[in-house]
Amino acid sequence: MRVSQFAVLARLAAFGSGLLAISTPALAQDAPKIDAADTAFMIIATALVLMMTLPGLALFYSGMVRRKNVLAVMAQSVAATGIVSILWALIGYSLAFTGDGAYIGSFSRVMLLGIDLESISPFAKTIPEILFMVYQMTFAVITCALVGGAVADRMKFSAFVLFCVLWLFVVYVPSAHWVWGGGFLGAMGVLDFAGGIVVHINAGIAGLVAALVIGNRQGYGRENMAPFDLSLAVVGTGLLWVGWFGFNGGSALGSGSRAVFAIVATHLAACAGACVWSAIEWAHRGKPSVLGMISGAVAGLGTITPASGFVLPWHGIVIGAVAGAVCYFFCTTVKQKYRYDDSLDVFGVHGVGGIMGTLAVGIFATSFLSATPDAPGVAGLLEGGFRQLGIQAVGVVASILWCAAGTWVCLKIVGALGGLRASSEQEREGLDLALHGEALHQ
Fold this sequence. Notes:
With 442 residues, the chain is mainly alpha-helical. The protein has helices at residues 2-30, 36-62, 70-97, 129-147, 157-180, 184-188, 196-214, 230-249, 257-285, 290-304, 313-338, 346-364, 367-370, 387-418, 424-429, 431-436. The protein has a single domain, classed as Ammonium transporter fold.
């Protein structure tokens, strides 16, 4: 009897030690403290995401327009980087990531007021707040730059500049706060690991609305609008692909297994998207195009983005494969049927991909990956529940409605102030020479 009592006591002691071992790291993890390894990792991730816009997106877009508009498209990426970065540091970051408002943040970090060497954001507890600010800045930059691809070849540069200023505050900043900054969608339980809603749905919907408001290019559907130099687009795709490791992996906000899982899922989704898009095109048209391969890769990358840190690697293959097929359908069949001129398929790739990826979180989210202090455990459909899928759908609908309305308002304001579209003569001449006074050598 005595031996039995000692055995029970020993087991209880062992169990208590196990609980202590489990709970102590969790408590330490909750305590804000700058970690050198996480900081170094996030500096690299920040550089990678900035590289996605310059030169990644600039090359990707410029390779797919006509020669006479190459520099104009590049100018949009450069302008978005400069303008959005300054506005984000001055006020955008504060409105997106401070305060406890359900719909918008506070002015407590205007002009980065109060941020010092030891400051830590409650949303990134192991890196300096200034680093979290600039990492989020690179997301805002590329989102604004993405929208320009939908209206390439015809939107005035001055109009794009003013649109970036307005759209950043009307659409992007509120959306970032809703999902990532303590707003109502995040509080509701909407999960967006790296920007399915905040980046891709917003960019895609805004691009579609802008294309419809501005109208089709002259000669659309009648003239040859083949890409100028797909080799530039391939190089741009490579830079985007690698940069996406910082985009998705860095959204773990620290170096660790979650970041690695996100990177692996991201890479596999890109591979699957490229293969499936290319295979469908090969079957339908008899030849697999380079444009199809890179479009499929970007579709896979965009679609895995919101789910990347919540899913297993093989889920990335499934999500990327579905993205390759569905985005191909939207960029060909749907676009041809409704004859809207989304020049570089921002809606067909990013908008559609962002919607699918955000919903995929509700299907594939894996509890051991999604259970964190900041994101309570989530069991996807594969683990027996439809609740998260419904929550994700609410987030998708809310973001689409707000982005569509906000984008329309911004475009109407820009149009009233100075016009949206280049003149017919400028469009025929090419925006490089007409708007920038420069052109590529023939």
